[in-house]
Design brief:
This protein has 53 residues and is mainly beta. The protein has a single domain (3-50), classed as N-terminal domain of TfIIb (Single Sheet), CATH 2.20.25. Helices cover 11% and strands 32% of the residues. The chain contains one helix and five strands, in the order αβββββ. Strands 1, 2, 3, 4 and 5 form a five-stranded antiparallel β-sheet that branches. The longest helix has 6 residues, at 3-8.
């Protein structure tokens, strides 16, 4: 994932920064994981999955 893109991406729900892990972008504040599909982040709340960490 492009580091410049990662610097500007935020969670669409709470606007917190996201963290790149594997094939997902993680919002630690909302506990949501946004998928990365073919190198493109899918930053849609309806497409995110809940994480239980």
């Amino acid at each position: 994932m492009n580091s410049k893109l990662l610097e500007i991406l935020v969670c669409p729900l709470c606007k917190a920064p996201v963290e790149h892990k594997s094939q997902e972008l993680i919002c630690n504040k909302c506990k949501l994981a946004y998928p990365i599909d073919d190198g493109i982040p899918v930053m849609l709340i309806d497409e995110a999955r809940k994480i239980d960490e």
